[in-house]
Amino acid sequence: MVEYRQQHTDDWLQHFVRRGHPAPRAIGAGMEGVVYRLDEGLVAKVWSGRPPADLGLTRRVYADIARHPLPFATPEILDIEERDGVLVTYERELTGSPLRADSGITPPERELPAREPRALLAVLRALATVPGTEAMRRLTVQGDDRPLWQGHTRFPEALAALVRRAAGRHGDLLAARVPGFDALVERTVAALNSLPDTPVTVIHGDLVPPNIHADDTGRPTAVLDFGFFTTAGDPAFEAGITAAIWDMYGPHAEEHTAELTRLFAAELGHPVETLALYQAAYALSTYDLFSTDGSDGHFQWCAALLGRRAA
């Protein structure tokens, strides 16, 4: 199994001590870097993976989100440092504990605890109240080479163009696993381009269990790790992707995706077909972000989702 998470090193602990933080400790690691708790209310994120191209832009996006009263906290960058070519952001600490471990680590049972769909609906409804901003439109989603909205005025058309670019990166990998791959890409692009205009709100794009923190009652207290697919767009995209990625690797993942897709369609008023279309677009856009040879679990998940849609 390939390890895609960045690793903690003691050298960073010593660095933070020299900066006046007497008891730093690593509290989390992901694809983009490691997070250290420095003092009460303050953490540092060491971007030892691929950092955002413009942390100043990310900082403005965080500020745009924070201007709106939400029932949970979101990230805020307080300072930015560069050390030996590695970027470090100093951010306010977000409270609560992850709602659940990632499904690749702790697969959920067949029956999702009621607190999970309840928390997801609360987060989706709240984020859909935050208008999309110019800074959000300037963000580049991971794996791409330009801002998602560049040259476009509508989110579905911007996403369709991304799908076509992403399919051209390593599409032969998917073509070997997904029957009728080229036709599927064309159908997806055409369907996206035909979607009607929608509200444009902030899109987190990676609402997996570790990125939603909650208190002991299951009430969301924080949403963190914006950046993987953060942009401005259709709130139905956020709902569809969340339904698909909430449980990606557990034994009941396909059932949970279908269950959450139906729930979000009913509760949030999104057509099931639109949610499924956005799920396919997400798989076509992200399939090669963790490896370029199809060796990782995310690629396998994308291929399986697209195979079901192509069938």
Q: Can you put this structure into words, describing what you see?
A:
The chain is an alpha+beta fold and 311 residues long. The protein has 2 domains: 10-92, Phosphorylase Kinase, domain 1 (2-Layer Sandwich), CATH 3.30.200.20; 98-310, Aminoglycoside phosphotransferase (APH), C-terminal lobe (Aminoglycoside 3'-phosphotransferase, Chain: A, domain 2), CATH 3.90.1200.10. Helix content is 41%, strand content 15%. It has helices at 10-18, 55-66, 115-127, 134-137, 155-175, 181-193, 235-245, 253-268, 272-286, 297-310, and strands spanning 25-29, 34-39, 42-47, 77-83, 86-92, 97-98, 201-203, 212-214, 220-223, 231-233. It has a 5-stranded antiparallel sheet, with helices on both faces. A hairpin with a 2-residue loop joins strand 2 (34-39) and strand 3 (42-47). Helix 5 (155-175) runs antiparallel to helix 6 and helix 9 packs across helix 10. The longest helix is centred in the middle third of the chain and has 21 residues, at 155-175. The chain is globular. The model is unreliable at 1-5 (pLDDT under 50).
What is the CATH class of the largest domain? Alpha Beta
**What is the CATH H-level superfamily of the largest domain?**
Aminoglycoside phosphotransferase (APH), C-terminal lobe
Biggest sheet, open or closed, and with what strands and sense? Answer: 5 strands, antiparallel
CATH architecture of the largest domain: Alpha-Beta Complex
Return the domain count: 2
Mean pLDDT: 93
| CATH topology value of the largest domain | Aminoglycoside 3'-phosphotransferase, Chain: A, domain 2
Number of strands: 10
Oligomer: single chain
Overall 3D shape: globular
- The SS-based structural class is alpha+beta
Radius of gyration: 19 Å
* Individual helix count: 10
Domain Aminoglycoside phosphotransferase: 25-248
InterPro entries: Aminoglycoside_PTrfase, Kinase-like_dom_sf
Protein name: Phosphotransferase
Pfam family, one: APH
